């Protein structure tokens, strides 16, 4: 499947309200200069030890302080860091956890966030994030500046990168059938899922990494506009309750949810299947293949003894109603048991 854009532009500036996305190779190498040129002034840097080790010295050197973001849940992490962060301007270098932590702190402090993603996470593009434990904010925020370097966004080892790509594909797919979906969000989501599938079909050495990264940005843009439904309700809850990895959980659950949506949103599933180069009946196996093969929750360390706890938490989520004919507990159990 070839990229279906009528142009080939692997470097561009996307202005979207208060946000600017700078897309292109070399973005991380030039990030310190870009932040300065964009009037960021003093900033504090949030990242991980691994990302910092691979980043240019100038990015950390130009920061008023550098904070290493540990593993764990964003509300707890951001609450801990909130007391140590002094500047309102934050630069977040890393995956979704790092960027969401910066967004959580920025929303409380009334500051700005610059996101430099190192995965295909949707966090750079959305206002979807949690707040620090015990804190309040006037509203949620999205990054005001995104430095999207496709080499950095797609540089993970193949298995982990495919899991991250399935997380991105889930953003585009889940946004298709919410009550807030509209022609623009659907077109963005379908264009994004098509680009992701096209790129993943290519051998890694020949992969169009720009297409893969643009696909992830488009899918996250669609999610930010139309919000999410069944898939994200399940996955966000499983990650929190079962303490299992985020991207891999998305890759595990997505094929099962898409199969469950075939009768609920047939027109949207048909359009999604076409964007992935398959038909509705083959959508589950197709997504399994794109994700690197069939995955199971047990392989992620999920404790089957906590299934009922997870079901309780899923059913408590009001966002479940964003799904057409939202499933009852028995159907939710069948979806999860099939994924175990």
Task: Describe this protein's structure.
The chain has 340 residues and is an alpha/beta fold. The chain has 15 helices and 7 strands. It has helices at 31-37, 49-54, 57-61, 74-82, 96-109, 150-153, 158-174, 183-200, 209-226, 230-242, 246-261, 266-275, 283-290, 307-315, 329-339, and strands spanning 12-16, 19-23, 44-47, 65-68, 89-94, 112-117, 145-148. It has a 7-stranded mixed β-sheet with strand order 1-2-7-6-5-3-4. Strand 5 (89-94), helix 5 and strand 6 form a beta-alpha-beta unit. Helix 7 (158-174) packs antiparallel against helix 8 and helix 7 (158-174) runs parallel beside helix 9 (209-226). It is globular. It starts with 11 loop residues before the first strand and ends with a helix. The mean pLDDT is 95.
How large, in whole angstroms, is the Cα Rg?
A: 19 Å
Question: Can you give the mean pLDDT?
Answer: 95
Helix percent band: 40-55%
Helix/sheet category: alpha/beta
- What kind of sheet is the major sheet? 7 strands, mixed
The fraction of residues assigned to DSSP E strands is 5-15%
Q: Separation of termini?
A: 32 Å
Strands across the major sheet, in which order?
Answer: 1-2-7-6-5-3-4
Tally the helices. Answer: 15
Shape by Cα distribution: globular
How many β-strands, per DSSP?
7
Q: What ranges have pLDDT less than 50 throughout 5 or more consecutive residues?
A: none
Helix and strand sequence: EEHEHHEHEHEEHHHHHHHHHH
Task: Reconstruct the topology from this structure.
Elements: E1 12-16, E2 19-23, H1 31-37, E3 44-47, H2 49-54, H3 57-61, E4 65-68, H4 74-82, E5 89-94, H5 96-109, E6 112-117, E7 145-148, H6 150-153, H7 158-174, H8 183-200, H9 209-226, H10 230-242, H11 246-261, H12 266-275, H13 283-290, H14 307-315, H15 329-339
Parallel strand pairs: 2-7, 3-4, 3-5, 5-6, 6-7
Antiparallel strand pairs: 1-2
